[in-house]
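Input record (one chain):
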Amino acid sequence: MMEEDLVSLRAQLEQIERLQLTEACEPGDLYSKDTQVFLLTMGTIVLFMQCGFAMLEAGSMGSGYVINILYKNILDLSVGVVAWWSLGFGFAHGKDQGGFIGMSKFLHIGMGDCEDAYWFFQWTFAATSCTIVSGAMAGRTKMWAYLSYSFLMTAFMYPVVAHWAWSPHGWLRNSNSGAGFRDYAGSAVVHVTGGASALVGAWLVGPRPHTHASYRRGAVIPMQSNSKASKANDPSSLPLVLLGTSVLLFGFMGFNAGSVVYMDTVDDAKLASLSVVNTIISAAGGSLSVSMVIRITKHSWNLQQSCNGLLAGMVSICASANQVKPWAAIVIGIIGGFVMYAGHKLVRRLNIDDAIDAAAVHFGPGVWGIVAVNLFSFKSSVFYTGDSTDAWNNFGWGLAGILSITIWSATLSFVNFSLLRRGGWLRMDEPALENLDRHEHGKSAYGFVSWGPAGTTPAPKNPSVNIG
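The corresponding structure, as predicted from the sequence alone:
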């Protein structure tokens, strides 16, 4: 009897604690103790994706550009925190102004007592979208140009898109018909925003030296892809590429499971679990489809593109991870892999040097992810409820969201990068591009390389030479 009394007392105390917590929160922002711990845990996992991006980008770059891209990653993180704290969160999740933007909670002023965990979790999404761009423009972008873009992206460009799609009053989410734009974990909000910006940035900054195209006086001049000089930009470390991809795979589990946001009921846990299952299945589908395409067409096994396919599968499932069956997840992943590889070929044909295929991995599969949720969602979709008006209304809102987010992101990026380019602040001078690590940081990432152009000349045999 004593044990039963203790259990009853403990339950009553937990209920009182939950009521006290709820009363301490602002109306509409009710994050329980369990939800806050859940968001902090998932946010920390998503934050670890920054390590994955750093390793993936460093391994994908030539050995003369490794320190430079790592440095941009750490500054991107630092600038992004300040931008999100000062302006970004307020624009994304502050008091609604006409369905377009939020206008409160700047500098953490007016935040609810229970919103800090949500603030942190949403910041990790903004940081992910911003980091996508650094890889595409790697190897030739001035540091100040990238820092200015990082602030713009995290403080304004991404938050406005997040408000459109995820605020209860955002114009994309809150349509008069009852239908609306659906993007559970950011196929468009995070990945289309970052991918469109990455593509514009890579185009305006011009290609790296020794790539499939050369850059002379603002003009892109096609160059033979089998040029011996192009080896200067070969990946410096495929093991780092694989390790970075594996870390991103881990991070995506928190990315998609955490998008449930609340963790107060069994149903919340079920949705988080379904999200994880669908994410890993879609990732496998993306990797396998790209591997098979390259094996059939090129008669080889390409590790780097297989990693890209895996990432494309996870980008594709973000919009629908909580509302599709596992059989649909693998279909979404397989098609996402095809979309990524087609994007890779298209970007190269356009003579745009996307250093790590950021646009191909994030933009194309992100667009496909929005289409897929409206085809395969078991809640309402063309496949399940195609005879209903809501299914087709949702499909239309999906297309409207893709178009709006692409135009917004591409336009702001174009204006920003064009101004920087006109002022001479966007692209590094050509001599420095032969080895950014030596020119900008005075060191080499790998002691045995980076003495000659783009790290192609071995270090001297003299052991007394200090190579940093």
